[in-house]
Amino acid sequence: MEGHLRLGDLPHQPDAITVNSRHLSRGGRPWFPIMGEFHYGRYPAGEWREELLKVRAGGVTAVATYIFWNLHEERRGVFDWSGDRDLRRFVTTCAELGLDVVVRIGPWGHGESRNGGFPDWVPATGCVPRTDDPRYIELVRPLFEQIGAQLSGLTRGHGGPVVAVQVENELHDQPGHLVTLKRIAQAAGIDAPLWTATGWGHARLPPDEVIPLFGGYPEAAWDTAHDGWPQQSRAHYFFGPGRDDDSIGADLRTTEVTGSDESHLARYPFATCELGGGMYTSYHRRPIIEAPDIAALGLVKLGSGSVWQGYYMYHGASQKIGALSTLQESHATGYPNDCPVINYDFQAPLGEYGQFRDSFRHLRLQHLWLAADGPDLATMTLTMPPDAPADTADRETLRWCVRSDGRSGFLFVNNHQPVETLPAHEEVRFAVELGGRELVVPREPVTVPSGAYFVWPLARPVGGSLLLTATAQPMGVLEGDEPVHVFCQTAGIPVELVFDATTEVEGPATVERDGDHLVVSDLTPGTGCLLRVRDAAGARAAVLVLDAGQALTAAQGRLWGADRLVLSERPVVIEEGRLVVYGEGSSDVRIFPAPPSATGTDGVFGLLPAATGGGRAPEAKVEEVRQAGPARPPVIDPASGRASAPTDADFEQAAVYRVTVPREAFTGEEEVLLRLDWTGDVGRAYIGGRLVADQFWYGPAWEIGLRRFREEVLEHGIEIKLLPLGADAPVFLSPQVQPAARPALELRSVTLVPVPRTVIVEDAG
């Protein structure tokens, strides 16, 4: 359906964004946004540019951010848009880096923020929030006018980066109010071609006014402390046309979700804003989210029809402490979940202090592919096999599907889910009828291992040739005189490429003609696995096939005048004139096409040295000041029935350690992490008596970035307070980290971890 949505740019606008019932378009061709959530108000403004470059390096093309009301108008009538609250500076920085922006203007936002982001004075006025109550609307109007002023000149009409606006969040029963908010926002100068609202919980949204956005998480910190895996999370590891997840926000709904009809959603493209980039830790539920849990969920949404991938969170952050109160979600303000006062790391692909996580690499692999094939994928629809699993209790049937436009497509396979291991599947082949022909892949049956998830191409162009099938995942295209199509091996399955018979292929492989097919086999994926492909007209292209490990180290971007692929064991960020390598190590960086300054070769890749560190890291001095008292007995919130977090008074019984950091730990503007390997319940870190970091212990080491506190750290040192985990604490922990005995409290080590940046520039000589 076309033209029915009250959305989109004016048609004559250059680079016009439009939307139909199937997908988004930009500049006249299909457009596939990749969106990552990053909260400007919870991160130091001086580090925004560096972190946004990391976000962009992960393949994210649009940054979504909440505008938390309580960060900007904590006291009624007194607005603060300075420093870390400078929305305009943040949006401008995104624009300078070529990133689109999606503003989530609320007024209610949630995001584990106190009162959902409302300042305390809003409910105290006696109005009925989140409705068209005139008393409430008159409170909202000045906020939107302030936001409009901040975004003045940055909207699409002025060539700015703001492509979408979300009104409210998780509001499921007030469609008229959403229209009211949209109209007030537009009157205040807040405008964008796309308007959105969260659609989960079978939300009743105003027809054709907003695009409903959906989500899905590998786990749910808002669930109870029961052992095992939340039931609703299972659905996100099965392909299918369903979009909704009624568990998100269920802890805050006062009415039961009824019905499952999604037929009205056919008017809108399948778009997401909250695919779990991780999960926060509530006091009573603290799951560990692994990288494959995140990436497999994302791949399932792509297979199921998503045309807009949105991750929450993509970059972790730290909650602010307000002038009047702490600003985290808590039992004290009527929420069912107690959250850390400061920590909002979310186990995200980029952490609370900009740490690169394994999930960053796993998601980037998908984003490299989408950068090339996303526009085509956006037009493709879902087809499920006849023997697809009937329900989410099925752990035996192999999960797969196809998205296609009738001529070309992609085959998706998922054999991974968290917690409950899925079995390997032997003797597997897939048969797909496409464009009037049957494609069978692979030619000989293979085993799909437990934990595997991947996408394979079907009848896709490689230059002027047609790649009918491939048992390798596409990773994008390096543009140039001879385009290079990059693939990677999946799940240990031998790589086999089948072209149409008019194609010629040369390179390190066995090439055989089989009827109207050209079969390429016996490849050894790696840095030297480059094939030359020529179509019937003589046009040339190339195919590069990496192994699975190399693929996870791959970054792509414009570097030194060419579109290049970079393989690096350490994280890299590509800018036009330089390559920034993060972390200590001595490994070379591999670059294809090889730059003139390469000092050696590995296959078709050039080598550039990027050694750093090597010396002994400075040591922190740790002194035990006080041993812990007895473990705190459980405290249960009467409203939610869930365990409550310790209070300030409880920390009078904490173990206390003083950590002294030597001045030589800080070099330049680079980050230094304080890493605490410990077991217990809750930890807090103070500098000069000020709380600067905290953690609900859940297994992984606790990391605190010291760069932002440098002068204070050198002057005061750091005070660490740790509480023991009680024998009967009613909290969920992932089984692999359960302490052998309780009460449990142990500080095993405190180390300083420098995060140097090595900058490589091309030698003009």
UniProtKB/TrEMBL annotation:
Residues 26-365 form the Glycoside hydrolase 35 catalytic domain. Gene3D superfamilies: Glycosidases (3.20.20.80). Keywords: Hydrolase. Residues 627-647 are annotated as: Disordered. InterPro entries: GH, Gly_Hdrlase_35_cat, Glycoside_Hdrlase_35. GO terms for molecular function: hydrolase activity. Transmembrane segments: none annotated. Belongs to the glycosyl hydrolase 35 family. This is Glycosyl hydrolase family 35.
